[in-house]
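Tokens in:
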């Protein structure tokens, strides 16, 4: 058997239409701290060893075919309620385990929220 040589995924790069608006939205909704920003990209702090980057792609059109990643939370019901209060579009509860729902960000990017 071949030896594994990749340790982990270092970062997620989420395309957005307007970088500054998207930074403000993620800070307002999730309170993610801005770590750095340049003319096209920004890194927001979620947790240690979790690179979350927004990348401006002006002609970007998101796909609703799948969610590219999950936000992991301790209490999905509480988070869903908070997102509803902030007028974030959320789906109904998904069937099966783990407990989960989907949401869309300011760019219509679909993101899953799962409780672990």
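Residues out:
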């Amino acid at each position: 058997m071949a030896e594994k040589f990749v340790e982990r995924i270092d970062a997620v790069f989420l395309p957005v239409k307007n970088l500054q608006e998207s930074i403000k939205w993620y800070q307002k909704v999730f309170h993610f701290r801005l770590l750095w920003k340049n003319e096209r990209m920004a890194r927001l702090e979620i947790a240690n060893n979790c690179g979350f980057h927004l990348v401006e792609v002006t002609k970007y059109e998101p796909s609703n075919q799948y969610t590219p990643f999950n936000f992991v939370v301790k209490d999905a019901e509480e988070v869903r309620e908070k997102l509803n209060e902030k007028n974030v579009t959320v789906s109904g509860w998904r069937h099966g385990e783990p407990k989960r729902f989907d949401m869309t960000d300011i760019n219509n990017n679909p993101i899953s929220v799962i409780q672990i």
